[in-house]
Amino acid sequence: MDNFTDALRQGNLEKIRTFPKSDLHNHFVLGGSRQYLCKTTGIKIEPVKTPLLSMEEMHAWNQENLGEKFNTSEMRKVLIRAAFHQAKDDGITVLEIGEDVWGLGEYFHNDINELVEAFTAAQREIASNIELRLQIGLSRHCSIGYLEDCLLHFWGNKAFYSIDLYGDESAQPIENFKSIYRRAKKEGLRLKAHVGEWGTAEDVRRAVEELELDEVQHGISAIHDKNVIRFLADYHIRLNITPSSNILLGRIPSMSSHPVGLLYRNGVDVTINSDDILIFDSDVSKEYLRLYESGCLSAEELDSIRQNGLTAR
What we know:
45% of the residues lie in helices and 14% in strands. By secondary structure, the chain is of the alpha/beta class. α9 links the parallel β4 (160-166) and β5 (190-195).
């Protein structure tokens, strides 16, 4: 067995882990190695077994399993290190993660260099072969003025690769964030946002147009409108998809019916990612194997997606 497609066909998860992969949709707080966290802190975190019914249920899971346990600067850095241990063990060679802007003051003493060093030092010490793409995170729940104040610490720092907007898609109109994204574009950042996980296909199109997005985190609702699918394909908008997360949050009924297959076959640029490993037991190698075993995508299609994810856009 000497190639990725053979590893998939034989269901050899450990062999799948040896092949280079990207993880471009990973929330590091929930995206680390549960084994490392248990060994380092004694905290045992088990993934969910049955689908959650809402984002509120996911937040309740977070509170029960993480709560206040990691709400210090030292423990935040433990979570960062856990993310690199997980990525290394899973054969990830391109990892896109970062801190929410509010975390700078909460955990890093409003020192942007301390924040950047926390990520880059972990990368150097644990997984020096991994390409780290450091991301600026924004929550839809925060006011625009507050986000703009926080971002003053981030603008101009060349350590950052991208910016991402996440949280409740209905928290406030996507148009509210246009001024931030215009500035981010001037800063040379890759423009991303979570959209189309809970919203509609038209929400995906509008977010791409209003914020001039390069990539969409999730975007699976595009499947409901052929015109939006064509729009995404024509404009080469990448969708960073997280299949197990979509199923365990009740967005998709099964792996076999996941829209990533149809999106890929209609020319949309898709990647396969983990999202929140601690909740969904969703490391990237498992995602590839689950998609193959469900019949959603062929081994050759999955290998094409894997190689595509390693390519910068």
